[in-house]
Design goal:
It is globular, with a radius of gyration of 13 Å. Helix content is about 0%, strand content about 50%. A hairpin with a 6-residue loop joins strand 4 and strand 5. The strands form two sheets. Strands 2, 4, 5, 6, 9, 10 and 11 form a seven-stranded mixed sheet that branches. Strands 1-3-8-7 form a four-stranded antiparallel sheet, with no helix packed on it. The chain is mainly beta. It starts with a strand and ends with a strand. It has no helices and eleven strands.
Length: about 120
Amino acid sequence: QVQLVESGGGLVQAGGSLRLSCAASGTISSYVMGWFRQAPGKEREFVGGISRSGGSTYYADSLKGRFTISRDNAKNTVYLQMNSLKPEDTAVYYCAAGPMFTTRKADYRYWGQGTQVTVSS
């Protein structure tokens, strides 16, 4: 069983940066980790993911070049660095842990409670 807690969200101006953290209560080294986001009135969408070792990452096409995922298995923590933020990045951001490298939210087994990111114009 893994419990995930996101932090680092907040209010930022367009063009700014934020780094989100996802701290796990258990060991995450055996899990692929993903980040998702959900804007008001929209479906939860895939942001990006990182392999168990951290050696591979993948991102939603629209976010490539602005968002970076990393992990520190020794600290059981995953990070989402977000740069050049836009108002349309406003959403609740969730981290998730799962057994496979996938963009499908149904394939992730454990979820955090989310952290709000608001980007003002």
